[in-house]
Model the fold of this input.
Amino acid sequence: MSKVAKAVPGTKDILPEEIGAWYRIEKLSRKIFSRYNFREIRTPIFESTSLFSRGIGEETDIVSKEMYTFRDKGEDLLTLRPEMTAPVVRAFIEHSMYSQSQITKLFYFAPMFRQERPQAGRLRQFHQFGAEILGSSSPYSDCEIILSAAGILKAIGLKDLTIKINSLGTPASREIYKEKLRLYLNDHLTSLSPESQKRYHTNILRIFDSKEEQDKKIMAGAPLLYEYLDEESRAEFNLVEEMLSSRGISYQPDYQLVRGLDYYTKTTFEIISGKVGSQSALCGGGRYDNLVSDLGGPSVPGVGFAAGVERILLAAKNEGIVFGDAIRPDVYIANLKRDDSAGSFRVAQELRDEDISAEMDILGRSMKAQMREANKLEVSFVVILGGDESKDGNCTIKNMKNSSQEVVPLNQIVIFISRNLHG
Ligand code: HAM
Done:
């Protein structure tokens, strides 16, 4: 026998029994995005590699280690998108959206690709929903982003959540801070893990993300960016805090929160679940006031977030949230005459034509097996054809909720079901 074909590690099939949860998350996120006046954008799955290296930053883990990059026949370097902010900004510039309105609010729901070591909550193909506001530097936009993200997670039913917020300041204040951090770490350099020693030279802020105990100890004594924030960033951060408090949203300032992408300025945040182990960030985002101009567009500020659907599902499962099946038929057509598929088919099609979902037996099974199938499908009604009453042009319709039965003329089935289905 030949080897069984398998999905690539880090990728996952979304099976029919799981799709109900996906529909629900997509529906809730769309609903909440529309409350905030976000409109959907869909961009290609692959982009020029340079978009991500310029946008996210050469020295980030994503760009330096995790991208799926390939050459196409025209010899261009292309990359499967690892995130959506850079593609959304590319589309924003390419279609001159800034000239159509001063504020552009976009959302997406799409697959992303990162070549990471697969583990629970960390995949190589995963899905994000997210939103971006372009054209506003107001901290009210930061709040809209944080509140829409938190609102979706709450609507999904998640409870064990912590919102962490920080400000990364302007690039100028960050440079001053990085110098201070470098000075501090000079004395500890040899005690840092090899990875952090590398980061000392390439992306010093990311040392805060290290999971190594030796690094954590050293970083606990490090100066904090917050102490070096410029006036404007500090004032805006305070305003975000005030607005969250005024909405009764609890949050934790986390002055060591650095994000894995280089485009951030000022407010950044993550929403953490206490229920998913080490890959605990369900969502992350922040402000990126220079990304549009860095990618060749005008000077337009932006802020956004993205949330990982697979991680949300993991958190939901561990919180005991049940989503239920997405689709089940309302009606099952059972037929006592095993060779009368044509009769069953006619009734099924009549129902489907009237927007009622129906399933029928096509295997010529026994009545017992057909009823077992109807129960399994959890239909509301079973139309039983081919019994004694069929001689007079009738059928029996069984209401599966209360087990009552009624004899109904064949030409009245659709009317009967429509009348009773949602009644
Ligand atoms: P990010 O923090 O890289 O941010 O990703 C956002 C979320 O995507 C994470 O919190 C996580 O839930 C999910 N995620 C990331 N990598 C994986 C993975 N390998 N497997 C499963 N889930 C994953 C961004 O992508 C930014 N574009 C967010 C943003 C939008 N910032 C401003 N606007």
Summary: The chain is about 35% helix and 20% strand. The first helix runs from residue 19 to 35. The mean pLDDT is 95.
